[in-house]
Design goal:
9 strands, binds inosinic acid, three-stranded antiparallel β-sheet, alpha/beta
Length: about 180
């Protein structure tokens, strides 16, 4: 209710739509990795945690869940341009099948950086699953294997995405004006 009454937030994706999409992605990934025994889900801290946990609960195949921390927008709406790892993986991904789980691909700079850092560790395969994709903002052409929703250019909050650490725990995805 608070969300609908607010003049700064406009709901873009409802809780029901999120649940349906996560279940759909979980099925697709479970089917595609059915023969794989060494899947590592790499969730990018902190934004993708909500999605990664929900996604993992919709998988019917074995996997290891690990986390990588990176610096991102600096909390605001502007992009700092620089990305760095703030927490590395605990799992050795060499010769493992890795699925990188992202909250949103915007410019593609972060994903491009992460893919480079992970590729040099020689995983057997490296694919990307993002919940949100904002193609209009893309600067770098990055591969996306699974995506939840394509959305227009806007600043998005909720379901893990924040503005100065606010709104992460919202159950819907909204545009912040
Ligand atoms: P990119 O490098 O521009 O693709 O952005 C990557 C990261 O920036 C995402 O994983 C998010 O953590 C953050 N980000 C990008 N767009 C938004 C947004 O609209 N709202 C909140 N965070 C965002």
């Amino acid at each position: 209710m608070e969300i609908e009454n607010s003049c700064r937030l406009k709901v873009l994706i409802s809780e029901e739509q999120i649940d349906e999409k996560v279940a759909f992605l979980g099925k697709a990934i479970s089917r595609d990795y059915a023969q794989v025994r060494d899947l590592v889900l790499v969730a990018v801290l902190r934004g993708s945690v909500y999605f990664a946990v929900d996604l993992s609960r919709n998988l019917s195949i074995p996997f290891i869940l690990d986390f990588i921390g990176i610096s991102s927008y600096g909390g605001g709406m502007e992009h700092p341009g620089a990305v760095r790892i703030t927490k590395d993986l605990d799992v050795n991904i060499t010769h493992k099948n890795v699925l990188l789980v992202e909250d949103i691909v915007d410019t593609g700079l972060t994903l491009n950086y992460l893919l480079k850092k992970l590729r040099i560790r020689n995983p057997s395969s490296l694919r990307v699953c993002t919940f949100l994709d904002m193609p209009e903002k893309r600067i770098l052409d990055v591969p996306v294997d699974y995506k939840g929703f394509e959305i227009p250019d806007a600043f998005i909050v909720g379901y893990g995405l924040d503005y100065h650490e606010h709104y992460r725990n919202m159950k819907v995805i909204a545009v912040l004006k």
